[in-house]
Amino acid sequence: MTEIHGDFPNKLQAVLANNGLGGLLTEAQAEAFARAARVLLAKNEEVNLTAITDEDGILFRHYVDSLTVVPKIPAGARMCDVGAGAGFPSLPVALARPDVRVLAVDSVGKKMRALSEQAEALGLANLSALSARAEEMGKDPKYRETFDFVTARAVTRLNVLAEFCLPLLKVGGVLAAMKAKTADEELAEAKNAIAKLGGTLRTVDAFTLEMNDEVLERTLILIEKTAPTPATFPRNFSQINKKPL
Length: 245
Description:
Elements: H1 8-18, H2 27-44, H3 55-67, E1 78-82, H4 90-96, E2 101-106, H5 109-122, E3 127-131, H6 134-137, E4 147-153, H7 158-165, E5 169-179, H8 184-196, E6 199-211, E7 214-225, H9 237-242
Helix pairs in contact: 1-2, 1-3, 2-5, 3-4, 7-8
């Protein structure tokens, strides 16, 4: 198993600073990320969570990439991470923002169980994990229009993603769609869906992240919930998938 070295916290802080995210973490939080990396690797031996298992890859492609959304999250927010998988960005957000209550959601039960166990090992009381489908949660009064902030990192195309996520947001809440590259085509394709579901496009931020010789192209799309989602949405998964809005 890959070793996480003692300089991991300092390296993480340096990479964040080099990418315009300096001051995001305290020294204690950076140390917590090193512990989290060790817990992730140990859990990955039991459950296949991620193919990225080298120290630099975890630091850069999992943690730094996930942390780019943190400055956008309102204080004290209730957040849902849709399609959380191995826990990105939900776990890094919970570590960086103890004021934010994070619910990670994924349909793969073993990944959510593994994430719950990681949260417990790290003492993260503000992170919980739920095995569920977002489109079913969007119909459930327990979750519908209850979140202040919803994240989705590399989940699906924006017109489909909007129907999964916007019904979960309160009016005034924000969907942060974390995309790999510039998303002009997806935005044009999703214009109708966003409007029908009560959303309004706010910002599109294209940027690059750099570490050593590696460059990641990223786009962060913020969509505000400006009107309630009509009761007919979300539809069931097959309808959403076969005939996106």
